[in-house]
Amino acid sequence: MVEEMTAAKADNRIRFVQGSKPKPITQVDTTAVGRRITGVCEFDRVLGGGIVPGALMLIGGDPGIGKSTLLLQVAAGVSERYGPVLYVSGEESAVQTRMRAERLGSLSNHLFIMTETNLDEIAVAANAMKPALVIIDSIQTMFNAEIPSAPGSVGQVREATGKLLRFAKETDVPVAIIGHVTKEGNIAGPRLLEHMVDVVLYFEGERNYAFRVLRAMKNRFGSTNDSGIFSMEEDGLKEVVNPSVLLLAERTHDMPGSVVLACLEGVRPLLIELQALVSTTVFGMPRRMAAGFDYNRLILLMAVLEKRVGLSLANQDAYVNAVGGIKIDEPAADLAVALAIASSFRNAAVNSQTVVMGEVGLTGEVRMVSRVDIRISEAATLGFKRFVIPAGNVPGLKTKQQGLEIVGVRDVTEAMEAVFV
């Protein structure tokens, strides 16, 4: 009850931006607004070309995934180009932050570290410094002394975000805040938090794998269709210019259960090896497991293979893995998963020069996917010659490269006939 009353009072105190008189939108001057390049190209790509002055950005992700590492590298890049950057840490001491910056090679005389959780003290320091960027690590540790509740509570997080939003809009200083996530993968705190900010970024990946993916879930200043791919190394995050090469580097050729998928990570084409292992179960109920692919989608595809194709999978364990720790969340992976399962079940390999893409419906039909041309172009540059795609995509293909074999299929049965000889 105390929390709800406090939060209600806080709403009345928050004034996000200064008022202004109405004027035609065509008279709003944007000539002085220029994006700030961070030097971390993958980060700039996701934002749409750099940081917009006055933007409030929220970066979320699992613990230990590299959020603080990413923003510390961004801070160093901005400080070298545009002047002082204020990095506020509520979770580490100044010595610990310095040690991490040394390891990352991100030391700069223009990068200022402040260990503080009181928003009023942070505001005083930021107004005096006039930095090119403010980074808050993390929003759950910040508090407003006027609210008698613990840091991280709903009222505190909302009030802290409101104050930072007002500071960003009034001073044109961009602010990046790190947010913790819940066990469900959502950013901790009220949903209002994501509505208040201008940009919401999610940093994803498996801690046991090197790859990290930065996705924009909300971006008022650019597209949300792009993504950045990084590799976590001993000396920090490295940008991955051509991830397909690394993801396929250890692929074994002509092995049953292995299929190459051309998927999209945002608008970027990405080639991933999908592996499936199907074996007779020794349990009362067969096991199905998926890594990097939706479990419910796997169950659906196995039902389609059994009902529409006639594969006897009722007493088979099935395991599917997207190699490299990449999470696939687009339906274009359906056909590749289905063929990998069929390949393992039949113990018949799919040709190593074949790339597969297509959505599978409940009747077994193969549906069209988007941006087929850029998927094919990416695969062709890596030496792939044969492509199994939905028949509906064939008439609209613009690819003019010579020596490519395009096979259009209408259903899963046709796809199996095309890949198994």
From TrEMBL:
One Pfam family matching this protein: AAA_25
Binding residues annotated for ATP, in chain numbering: 61-68
Cited PROSITE patterns: RECA_2 (PS50162)
Entry keyword Iron-sulfur: no
One cellular-component annotation, GO: cytosol
Annotated region described as Lon-protease-like, given as residue ranges: 317-421
Motif range (RadA KNRFG motif): 218-222
Superkingdom to which the source organism belongs: Bacteria
GO biological process, one term: recombinational repair
Domain spans labelled RecA family profile: 32-181
Record GO terms (molecular function): ATP binding; ATP-dependent DNA damage sensor activity; damaged DNA binding; hydrolase activity; zinc ion binding
Role, per record: Plays a role in repairing double-strand DNA breaks, probably involving stabilizing or processing branched DNA or blocked replication forks. DNA-dependent ATPase involved in processing of recombination intermediates, plays a role in repairing DNA breaks. Stimulates the branch migration of RecA-mediated strand transfer reactions, allowing the 3' invading strand to extend heteroduplex DNA faster. Binds ssDNA in the presence of ADP but not other nucleotides, has ATPase activity that is stimulated by ssDNA and various branched DNA structures, but inhibited by SSB. Does not have RecA's homology-searching function.
Family: Belongs to the RecA family. RadA subfamily.
Record-given protein name: DNA repair protein RadA
Lineage: Bacteria, Bacillati, Bacillota, Negativicutes, Selenomonadales
